[in-house]
Write a structure and sequence with these properties.
single chain; alpha+beta; four-stranded antiparallel sheet
Length: 70
């Protein structure tokens, strides 16, 4: 799985967007920021960043170990 994703959706398919976010959360992702909305003509787009917590924590641990070695 990707350590980070940007889930995109539209107000015309709001249920599909909500489903994508729900599925990501069930797979172990957590919200990684605020929901971003953007009006493009008559369409309103939604963008929700998510991050896979396990991978993020592993990267932080690796960085901490590198700092300890120095």
């Amino acid at each position: 799985m990707k350590p980070y994703m940007l889930i995109e959706g539209s107000h015309t398919a709001l249920e599909a967007f909500e489903s994508k976010v729900t599925n990501a959360l069930e797979e172990g992702y957590t919200l990684a920021g605020e929901l971003v909305t953007q009006a493009i003509g008559s369409d309103i787009r939604f963008y929700q960043p998510v991050i896979l917590e396990d991978d993020y924590e592993d990267e932080e641990d690796d960085e901490d170990e590198e700092e300890d070695e120095e």
